[in-house]
Design goal:
homodimer; DNA-binding; 9 helices; Tetracycline Repressor, domain 2; mainly alpha
Chain lengths: 198, 198
DNA sequence: AGTGGATGGTACCGATCGGTTCGATCAGCG
DNA sequence: CGCTGATCGAACCGATCGGTACCATCCACT
């Protein structure tokens, strides 16, 4: 039964379509860079439908950010698991995936960082903070499997490389091998931390 | 002669005062988060004066960003020169300075990254790109003095740590020793690159 | 004292913003 | 068929936006 009881057209499908269509537009032009009018026009959706599903523009923004965070996380997790069991290979896979992202013509930096730079208020910050937390979990897990003495600290250092590489790639173009340099730095840190000190 | 020929009140002084007063406000609330009306009210400046000096709000934004970039660069350069001749000490001084910044209650992330996230258009991007370039020059110089095989590549890796640490500090609070972890990572990369491979 | 440029204060402009409302339309279920 | 609810399209609202115009004021130099 593709349609839930008591309704004719599936609202959940409409909602998902709106989120999917709004995501690239809000990412490219910025959360405040595109108004509701243009948003509805590009989405092929009436104003009333948008407000009935999300209540406010901020609600749509939160839904878009949450969906994007989930998507990025699934993408990264898939890249890691596809890299095999070696923690170094897994870490290299993370930065290779980032390199692919940087080379996409639509790349405009980390959507979470961009969003937080604009709306340093309420619920958006919660979403971006959770996004970074999930990233940290992924990297700390790699650090732990590599036998790092302090997986949490190494994970945070690796997270800095991930976000820093994204910032540098955003501002210095994708041509230079930003992802490759970040990967080498990450592997060097991982190797140093896996080796007992002294 | 504090006053230039042919004028009564020094316009340059007024302009500098406007830039100084607008800087923290635009940094805290975002470039688009504060309107011209409130801006003038907080600055104690009439609308006409602001537009005569900067032509448009974008002109004021560019002047503010340029001034902040200059100030940050002077601050970092001073921290480096005060650290002595050892490149490792100089690099540590950079991250210690960052740590002080992160702990300031007004810290809200890198103003250049925030600005670029909002206005990914022409002149703002030029200012932020030059800001990162100057940062890169500073770090590459340290890498070169440390005898790195590829000072440019190491400089970019260190730049990633600087910007990444700033992002993490912005989203994870200043409590955790973000700057210290970044400093250790940077020193580890510097030591590894100064040592001949193999 | 008088002159002229710099400023403050304020009203005003058109445009756009986010958000609301209303009626027509359309798809599915009984 | 008739009913119900999701949707569209467009008009509309108040607020705010960046920017302009006008005038009184004020300061510094002659």
């Amino acid at each position: 039964m593709p349609v839930p009881k008591g309704s004719t057209i599936d609202p959940a499908r409409t909602r998902a379509a709106i989120v999917d269509a709004a995501t690239p537009l809000l990412y490219e032009r910025g959360l405040d860079g595109v108004g509701v009018a243009e948003l509805c026009a590009r989405l092929g959706v009436s104003r009333e439908t948008l407000y009935r599903h999300f209540g406010t523009k901020g609600g749509l923004v939160q839904a878009v950010l949450q969906a994007r965070s989930d998507r990025v996380h699934r993408w990264m997790a898939a890249a890691v698991t596809a890299a095999g069991a070696d923690p170094a290979d897994q870490l290299a896979a993370v930065f290779d995936a980032l390199g692919e992202w940087y080379r996409e013509p639509t790349f405009r930096g980390c959507a979470m960082v961009n969003a937080a730079a604009q709306h340093h208020d309420d619920p958006v910050r919660a979403i971006t903070a959770r996004h970074l937390d999930r990233y940290l979990d992924l990297l700390s897990g790699i650090a732990a499997r590599a036998g790092a003495a302090d997986p949490g600290a190494l994970g945070r250092q690796l997270l800095m490389l991930v976000e820093g590489a994204t910032v540098v790639a955003t501002h210095h173009g994708a041509a230079a091998g930003t992802a490759e340099q970040a990967r080498e730095a990450a592997l060097a840190l991982l190797a140093a931390a896996s080796r007992p000190p002294g």
